Amino acid sequence: MRFTWILCLALAGLSACNNEKANDADVVKDIFSEALSDTTAYSNLKTLCTRYEGRICGTAEADGAVRWAEALLSSMGLDTVYLQPMMVPKWNRGEEEVGKVLSAALGDHLLSVCALGWAVGTGPEGVTAEVVEVTSKDQLEKLGDAGIRGKIVFYNQPMDPTHYYTFESYGEAVWQRARGASMAARYGAVAVINRSLTMASDDYPHTGIMHYADTLPKIPALAVSTVGADSLSGWLKKDPAIKLFLRTTSQDHGEVTSYNVIGEIRGSEKPDEIIAFGGHIDAWDNTQGAHDDGVGVIQTIEVLRIFKKLGIRPKHTIRVVVFMDEEVAQRGGAAYAASVKAKNEKHLAAIESDRGGFTPYGFSIDASPMTVGKINNWKKLLEPYGIWSFKKGGSGVDIRDLQPMNIPLLALVSDSQRYFDYQHSPSDTWDKVYPREMQLGSAAITSIVFLIDNYGLE
Ligand SMILES: [Zn+2]
Questions:
Q1: Nearest-CA neighbor of 253 among 50, 56, 438?
Q2: Eight-class DSSP state of 117
Q3: CB atoms within 10 A of CB 382
Q4: Which residues have CB under 8 Å from 196's CB, separation 6+?
Q5: Which residues are paired to 243 by β-bridges?
Q6: Which of 39, 111, 209, 332 is the right S-S partner for 228, CB 3.0 to 4.6 Å?
Q7: Minimal CA–CA distance to 242: which of 99, 127, 98, 104?
Q8: What is the pLDDT of residues 97-130, one digit of tens each?
Q9: Which residues fall within 8 angstroms of residue 370, CB to CB, at 6 or more apart?
Q10: For residue 298, how far is its CA from the centre of ligand 1 (angstroms)?
C-alpha cells in the first residue's frame, strides 16, 4: 500500500482527496518508472537512426524505415497494425556539392555546403559569380536589380540568440531558406547560399525544405555552415570582388507511393473513440534524424509498449501514427486527416512529439480554454517529473490538419536550447540523444494519454 493511499484513508472523513486521484498518482509513477528503467526505446532509436539514415520521403531508406516500424509494431501484440498509403515527392541531391571561394587577393577556399531540399541543381558545369551579402529583407529590397542581377545572393541573417525559446529565432530567420531563392531571383540573382539555421558555430551545413514562386526563375539554393558563413562574410569585407563557384546536381523525380504506419490497442469501452499520438519517421537525406524526429516516433511507440507492460487496458482506442513526410510536403499528416474525415472517426485528442529529445517540461495545447483548463488540473500529477507547463499554443505540423475537425491538439514541449544545433544536419545522430531525457518525454505523453483516456477532455 502506498503512502498516498494511506493518506487518503486517513483523510477520508475530511474528503481532502479521493482514491481515484491517489491511484492516478501511482499509475503516473509506474509509467515514469517503467520509461526510465527500460532500455528498449533507446535501442530502437539507435536501430532506426543507424539502419535507416537519410530516410527522406521517396527514398529506399524511408521505405526501409516504414517496413521496420511496421515489423516493430507487429511484434508488440497490438490489436491492429496497418499502413496508410499516400503519394510523396521524390528528389535526390546527386553528387556531393561544391562551394568554393575564388579570390585573387585571398586565395581559393572550400566552403562546407549542401543543396537545400528540392532546390534545382546548377548542372555539372556549376555556376560562378560575384557575391552580395544580405542580412535582412529590407537590405535585399534596397539592393534591388542594380545590386543583385547576375550575382549570387549570400543570405547571412543569423538566428537571434536573445529569444529564450529557440523556435522563435528559427521562425524569424527561416524566410532565407524557405523563400530566399525566389526573392533573389526576382532581382536577377543566379543562385543563393544561406547561412545554416543554427546558433551553433560549427562546419555542418543544415538543409531543409525550400519553395519556389511559380512566376519566377528557379535558381540553385544551398546552405553553408555557420563557420563557412562567418569566413565568407569576413573575406567579402577584405575583397568585395570575391567570386563563388557553386556546383549541385540535384534532380526532381516526381512522386512515389509511401506510407504512414499505424498501430492500435483497441478501447475496452469505446473502441470507436480514439486518442492518437505520433512523430514523423522521415528525416533529411544528410542525417540520422535522431532529434528530428526519430525521438518522436520512438516516444509515441513507447506509449503502447508501456500500456501493455503495465497491463493498463485503455477504455478508448489508443493509436500511434508514425507519420511519413513531415519535412517536404506534409503528405502523411494530410493523408491521416483525410482518413479521419472520410471514416468520421471521433478523436478525443491528437498528440505530436517533434521538438527534439531534450528534457521535456510540458505541453503546448491547441484547444479551447476549457480543455486547457482541464489539462492544467493534472499538473500536480506531472509536476514531480518536471512536467509543469500546460499552455495554449501551436501543436505540430503532422496533426495540424485535424484542427478544422475541432480535435484538441497537443505537442510535447522540450528544452529548445540545443535543438537547432542538430536539426537537418549530419550532427543529428542517435548518440546526441540522452536516454533519460527522451524517456521523460515518453512517460509524459503516456501519462497524458492515460489521463485523457480516463477523464476525457470535455
Ligand atoms: Zn521534425
A1: 56
A2: B
A3: 25
A4: 204, 205, 206, 223, 224, 225, 226, 229, 425
A5: 102, 130
A6: 111
A7: 104
A8: 999 999 999 999 999 999 999 999 999 999 999 9
A9: 458
A10: 13
**Ligand 1 mean position to 293 CA, how many Å?**
5
**pLDDT over threshold 50, residue 19:** no
| Interval between CA 355 and ligand 1 midpoint (Å) | 7
Please, are residues 55 and 61 in contact by the beta-carbon 8 Å criterion?
yes
Quick: pLDDT tens for 236-289.
999 999 999 999 999 999 999 999 999 999 999 999 999 999 999 999 999 999
CA–centroid distance, residue 60 to ligand 1 (Å): 19
Reference 253, options 84, 63, 118; nearest CA is 118
Between the CA of 125 and the centroid of ligand 1 the distance, in Å, is 34
DSSP string spanning 398-456?
TTGGGGGGT--EEEEEE--TTHHHHTTSTT--GGGS-HHHHHHHHHHHHHHHHHHHHH-
Ligand 1 center from residue 78 Cα (angstroms) = 26
The span from the CA of 154 to the CA of 156, in Å, is 6
Instruction: Of 62, 50, 128, 51, give the one whose Cα is nearest residue 91.
Output: 62
For residue 97, the CA-to-ligand 1 centroid distance in Å is 24
Least confident of 11-25, 270-284, 377-391, 425-439: 11-25
